[in-house]
């Protein structure tokens, strides 16, 4: 089944050296279709297999928190691959320059990489394809149904993609293949990973510190999955929208960093329909949007009805208007919003239900939807462990621009985009308990949801 997950990014001939796997989005050894494909080709050609990971010094608004989580996971990958006689190297630089140069130096037989629908990684792949002298393949190891096969176009919503995904699951939701101990050993030189040099060379915001409540890496991801299935599974459907309850899987950071396979999770979570809807349909819908919509992070990417409606309400008076600094410092009049912001700042992970409220209030209390979207992306990417992700861009576009949604009752500022308020949250969960947890008891006692209509 690997062949249907592969796209040729160029049609060039194979070289005479090892197969080079450029690990990018899928940072794991196990259950990794892209790595399995690279080894398959290396075995066919009877060549060694080398794995390289390239870290740009700067990547969007990611900070030290995200880089620390990622690097610690990569250290585990390095150890695991060594046991399989597969050399691994992590280097700092620009992938579009380093991958062609390394392939040329090694006289690589071919270069294999994983799939990303996002603008910067796609630009890297396009540039590498032009400059590589050898064959270049991309493998979708993120989605259960390969993105370009699930649908040939941008889907309107989950209701249009869902039947396509479900029809294909019987074919694609099969057991995963494992990486074997590689019999063809590399005896040449390969760049040794200098983790200290990499860490010191990163140009990131060091004030956003790592979190300690969630451990990085493949092994930790498997443990978190087991806890979810053994201890939280029975309450997931009834408690998943309550941010005061510990009912969620906490797998999104691992999925974002490619430390665990969605396909493996789906196989283990059989029968959890609500969870599988989020894991498969909603996640793959996000990749679909970012793959086919070049303006996935801008106003131009919103549905036409939402653009029209928001444009008609540009001049509406805002009850409050906050600066980026006020948003970032959780300095608004709404303690429920402030609590959500502080949950994200302190833990690196805001509850999914609160992400919707958090984002919609940014729309309500900024001057324009463009500014709201820009601020939401900035904060999400800087503090969330799973920022800079297709699901994050889609969640923000849903909240602010009606993506994958329908038109609702028209109101000021929002137009026909779906509205949320604190009273609605109050009907769902104990808002004072949530505020107390993230802001303290004094603020919880002062909270008055009727002021946040």
Major sheet summary line: 6 strands, mixed
Number of strands: 6
Full CATH superfamily name of the largest domain:
DNA Cyclobutane Dipyrimidine Photolyase, subunit A, domain 3
Q: Which stretches of 5+ consecutive residues score pLDDT under 50?
A: none
- Tell me the overall shape: globular
- Give the helices and strands as they follow along the chain: EEHEHEHEHEHHHHHHHHHHHHHHHHH
CATH architecture of the largest domain: Orthogonal Bundle
Multimeric status of the protein: single chain
Determine the N-to-C terminus distance.
52 Å
Mean pLDDT: 95
In total, the number of domains comes to 3
Q: At the first level of CATH, what is the class of the largest domain?
A: Mainly Alpha
CATH fold category name of the largest domain: DNA Cyclobutane Dipyrimidine Photolyase, subunit A, domain 3
| Proportion of residues in extended strands | 5-15%
Structural class: alpha/beta
Task: Compute the number of helices.
Answer: 21
Q: Provide the spatial order of strands within the biggest beta sheet.
A: 1-6-5-2-3-4
Description:
The protein has 453 residues and is α/β, with parallel strands linked by helices. It folds into three domains: 1-142, 3-Layer(aba) Sandwich (Rossmann fold); 143-176 and 216-292, Serine Threonine Protein Phosphatase 5, Tetratricopeptide repeat, CATH 1.25.40.80; 299-452, DNA Cyclobutane Dipyrimidine Photolyase, subunit A, domain 3. 49% of the residues lie in helices and 7% in strands. It has 21 helices and six strands. The chain has helices at 33-45, 64-83, 95-106, 119-131, 147-150, 158-172, 195-201, 218-232, 236-239, 252-256, 262-268, 273-292, 304-312, 324-328, 335-347, 352-364, 369-383, 390-401, 422-428, 431-439, 441-446, and strands at residues 6-8, 19-23, 49-55, 88-92, 110-114, 135-139. Strands 1-6-5-2-3-4 form a six-stranded mixed β-sheet, sandwiched between helices. Strand 2, helix 1 and strand 3 (49-55) form a beta-alpha-beta unit. Helix 16 (352-364) runs antiparallel to helix 17. The longest helix is centred in the N-terminal third of the chain and has 20 residues, at 64-83. The radius of gyration is 23 Å and the shape is globular. The relative contact order is 0.12.
């Amino acid at each position: 089944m690997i062949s249907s997950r592969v796209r040729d990014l160029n049609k060039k001939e194979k070289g005479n050296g090892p197969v080079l796997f450029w690990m990018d989005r899928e940072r794991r050894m196990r259950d990794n279709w892209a790595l399995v494909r690279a080894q398959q080709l290396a075995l066919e050609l009877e060549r060694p297999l080398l794995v390289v990971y390239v870290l740009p010094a700067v990547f969007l608004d990611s900070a030290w928190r995200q880089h620390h989580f990622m690097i610690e996971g990569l250290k585990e990958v390095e150890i695991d691959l060594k046991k399989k006689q597969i050399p691994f190297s992590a280097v700092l630089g620009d992938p579009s320059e380093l991958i062609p140069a390394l392939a040329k130096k090694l006289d690589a037989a071919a270069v294999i990489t994983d799939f990303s629908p996002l603008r910067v990684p796609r630009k890297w792949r396009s540039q590498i394809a032009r400059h590589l002298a050898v064959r270049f393949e991309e493998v979708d190891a993120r989605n259960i149904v390969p993105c370009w096969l699930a649908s040939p176009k941008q889907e309107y919503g989950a209701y249009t993609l869902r039947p396509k995904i479900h029809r294909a699951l019987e074919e694609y939701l099969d057991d995963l293949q494992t990486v074997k101990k590689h019999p063809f050993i590399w005896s040449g030189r390969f760049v040794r990973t200098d983790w200290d040099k990499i860490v010191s060379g990163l140009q990131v915001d060091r004030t956003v510190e790592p979190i300690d409540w969630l451990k990085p890496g493949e092994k930790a991801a498997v443990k978190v999955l087991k806890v979810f299935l053994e201890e939280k599974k029975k309450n997931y459907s009834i408690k998943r929208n309550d941010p005061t309850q510990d009912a969620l899987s906490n797998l999104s950071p691992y999925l974002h960093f490619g430390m665990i396979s969605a396909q493996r999770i789906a196989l283990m979570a059989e029968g959890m329909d609500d969870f599988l809807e989020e894991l498969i349909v909603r996640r793959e819908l996000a990749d679909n949007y970012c793959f086919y919509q070049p303006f996935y992070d801008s106003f131009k990417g919103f549905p036409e009805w939402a653009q029209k409606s928001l444009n008609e309400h540009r001049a509406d008076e805002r009850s409050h208007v906050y600066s980026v600094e006020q948003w970032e410092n959780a300095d608004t009049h709404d303690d429920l919003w402030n609590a959500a912001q502080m949950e994200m700042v302190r833990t690196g992970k805001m509850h999914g239900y609160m992400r919707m409220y958090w984002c919609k209030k940014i729309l309500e209390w900024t001057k324009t939807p463009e500014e709201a979207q820009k601020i939401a992306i900035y904060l999400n990417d800087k503090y969330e462990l799973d920022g800079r992700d297709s699901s994050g861009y889609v969640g923000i576009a849903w909240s602010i621009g009606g993506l994958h949604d329908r038109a609702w009752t028209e109101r000021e500022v929002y137009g026909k985009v779906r509205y949320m308020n604190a009273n609605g949250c109050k009907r769902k969960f104990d808002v004072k308990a949530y505020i107390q947890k993230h802001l303290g008891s004094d603020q919880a006692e002062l909270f008055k949801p009727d002021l946040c209509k």
